[in-house]
Amino acid sequence: MSKNKKTLKIAIAGLGTVGAGVVKILENNKDMITSRTGRVIEIVAVSASNRSRDRGIDISGYDWADNALDFASRDDVEIVVELIGGSDGVAASLAKQSLAAGKSFVTANKALIAHHGFALAQTAQDHNAALKFEAAVAGGIPIIKSIGEGLAANNLTRLCGILNGTTNYMLTQMEATGKDYSEILEETKLLGYLEADPSLDLDGIDAGHKLAILSSVAFGVKTDFANVYMEGIRRIKLVDIEYAKELGYRIKLLGIASISDAGLEQRVHPCLVPNAAPIAHVDDGFNAVVVEGDFVGRTFFEGRGAGEGPTASAVVADIIDIARGHNGPAFFIPCHDMKDVPAASISNRYGPYYIRLHVEEKPGVIADITAALRDKNVSLHIMLQKGSEQDGSVYVVMVTHEVREKDVMTALDQINALSSVIDKALAIRIENL
Amino acid sequence: MSKNKKTLKIAIAGLGTVGAGVVKILENNKDMITSRTGRVIEIVAVSASNRSRDRGIDISGYDWADNALDFASRDDVEIVVELIGGSDGVAASLAKQSLAAGKSFVTANKALIAHHGFALAQTAQDHNAALKFEAAVAGGIPIIKSIGEGLAANNLTRLCGILNGTTNYMLTQMEATGKDYSEILEETKLLGYLEADPSLDLDGIDAGHKLAILSSVAFGVKTDFANVYMEGIRRIKLVDIEYAKELGYRIKLLGIASISDAGLEQRVHPCLVPNAAPIAHVDDGFNAVVVEGDFVGRTFFEGRGAGEGPTASAVVADIIDIARGHNGPAFFIPCHDMKDVPAASISNRYGPYYIRLHVEEKPGVIADITAALRDKNVSLHIMLQKGSEQDGSVYVVMVTHEVREKDVMTALDQINALSSVIDKALAIRIENL
Predict the structure, then answer these.
(1) CB neighbourhood size of B235 (10 A)
(2) Which residues pair with B107 in a beta bridge?
(3) Of A87, A86, A91, which Cα lies nearest the Cα of A105?
(4) Which terminus of chain A has fewer Cβ atoms in its 10 Å neighbourhood, N or C?
(5) Cβ neighbour number for residue B255 with a 10 Å cutoff
(6) Of A141, A154, A317, the CB nearest to B153
(7) ipTM of the modeled complex
(8) Whose CA is closest to B90, among B4, B14, B1?
(9) Are the C-beta atoms of B416 and B410 separated by less than 8 Å?
(10) A316-367 tens-digit pLDDT
(11) Looking at beta carbons, which residues of chain A come within 8 Å of B333?
């Protein structure tokens, strides 16, 4: 039990939504946090791009730094909190310099940890400093702690999750309103839910960052974002959501990671998930993670994925952990025990597929399509075709039996070369969680 | 970072299902756990009521103690793991003596912590020892850690959960098979899912124990099992499950705790929960907990509630925590900060109710019933009556608007006194989570 009542001094770099939230929590819940940690947590300095912006918080009592890198050399600062963002630049320099100076480093920066997690963990270990990033993945869910500590008795081999709230919101809205992708995209932009670079959300990159972090925590592998397969939601149409529903599924953008003799599998892509799976009912901006352990079985965690409150809650939980003296390795095992595991190729995925085709309605089209599938031994379980569109084209939806990914993709390449194909065939993996 | 590679020696009291599971995890995942903790965890001694029983584990390498209390005075033992059960007797003596001797104490015993949690936490604090009980609540969900650490930045004021897997299994089976309570009860007994004293499951006592523990962890109040209101599932009929379904609800046995100016509310009883709530879809032996924080918003956790693997996983997580040097206060704040909060009476609950009546079908019955409700200002939202049973009786189901519990109960007392009432009226609280 820590009897150390010494003040714990922190500096915060970045005062956007999350940074302001961290200040609010530390001020509003100050007495409670002092009781929970046995230490008074004091913000001594802050830094941001704009000093005078109204953030709904009073920062006049804190030192101001024009350059956040100054925090790394301040003798009185025990924890540097980085809420700037970006995989490189100031955030990365601040991480390296702070840890090398023996300061603990708390961040919500998923890109930074996905790209440099292992190297930073090594720097932290070498200088006996703590590196913590609970807020980088699924803000409102204490998933890093749950995997690294709560489920630490288990050998974990598989996890999956809805890791991006914005795209989950968009898919939920498409189903709820019956509006198509482009219309919902515009509405989501207006709401300010998209990252400054929308590609991070729409192409699955943000979810990929989070998945790479979760893999490292769960499997003890070196962070390997470069080998995450990513495919976003840009090609999902309302018609896919409607057909999926008819087939007993919902469409979710999932991150899936597993480790086996085949290697480390890390992939982010839209999936059809059965209605009966809890993850099928995680809607709007919520995130969820499913973790399976050899002893604990299946566990399921759900909470808000982003936003001021949930993300700041996770940042402060990390600060509280450090105040309590919980300063273990960043990925919960020493760096020299972290494994280099070769990536498993997605082309070896074996499972069922939903395939949506948009073709001209004329004799022989279906024969050509089914022949291409037959040639790659892709056998069909269900085929739906429901009348024509106004322009005389037709949507054909098929569900395959379990097949090899490369066979499906080769067959679709052949199908896409047919002159009757209006829009490139879309295959969505079905995950029977 | 702990560089302490010294062996951590533990003794296990109780080798039932969970005890055997703990031995299996520590043996099967030994190398992984050593990497995760930096220490070799060694079982040095075990104790159980029967030495020779086949448990699927080899205990010949451990010292045997006929009396588990011997562990409290063994100099080489750092952690005593108690898996005997029971709120008093050997378990309680072992807890007191171990902690008083400065040993850490890990237990899965919910009755012990519900009854003596605060006193044991005080003993632990006085002797600088750790007291941990993750396995006591919702085995497969790291909920104690999630609340006490993961959500520690938040002021928590409300939580609820499905905390008893056996009754959740029974309710799920009634709906799935269309069999009535008594038949499912017999099947559940045969499966061995019921506690040795079935009242612990069926009357909500087991869930009550767990709720009292969660309240202390979440709200920082002294454990107060004596004031938990408990009502089990014995009066739930198939007809209730069917009517609930028709009304858009499912019936779940929930534990609900909240803290407000009205005091500490702790209640376990069947509830109608809306189909749209995630907790409505937690089936069979699974447990779930919903926690709301001032910054994090709503979080939802689901996992297996009991059984060898999930419970042992939680016990070993506590051992790993101690091996990592995480030895903070049992309820995450020092004992002198734990509050004595008066109990809020359930008679002040304000909300909607489902009421099921079984009455003789004759003129004036409904008039008498509705008059009794009117006299207590209980206004009705829905009333369903669907033809008669073969014996000429009739089920009448009503849903009230939001009303005060004591008014509903007083009205039902009057209704129950009517000669036309065949079976005492059943009121089930509707919780629009």
Answers:
(1) 15
(2) B82
(3) A91
(4) N
(5) 29
(6) A317
(7) 0.95
(8) B14
(9) no
(10) 999 999 999 999 999 999 999 999 999 999 999 999 999 999 999 888 999 9
(11) 35-36
Collect all residues of chain B within an 8 Å Cβ-Cβ radius of residue A29.
153-155, 294
Phi-psi region for residue A231, left (φ > 0), alpha (ψ -120 to 50) or beta? beta
Residue pLDDT, tens place only, B290-319? 999 999 999 999 999 888 999 999 999 999
Question: What tokens does B103 get?
Answer: 């040993």
Tens digits of residue pLDDT in A125-154? 999 999 999 999 999 999 999 999 999 999
pLDDT 10s digits, A273-327: 999 999 999 999 999 999 999 999 999 999 998 889 999 999 999 999 999 999 9
3-state SS, one letter per residue, for A40-65: CEEEEEEECCCCCCCCCCCCCCCEEC
Burial class (CB in 10 A: 0-12, 13-18, 19+), B190: exposed
Report CB contact under 8 Å: B149, A316: no
Q: Distance between CA A205 and CA A234 in Å, rounded?
A: 13
CB contact under 8 A, A299 and B299: no
Q: How far is B86 from chain A (nearest CA, A)?
A: 24
Q: In terms of pTM, does the model score above 0.90? A: yes
Phi-psi region of B172 (alpha: psi -120 to 50; beta: other; left: phi over 0): alpha
Q: Which domains does chain A have, with CATH numbers?
A: 8-136 (3.40.50.720), 143-305 (3.30.360.10), 350-430 (3.30.70.260)
Q: Do B309 and A329 touch (CB under 8 A)?
A: no
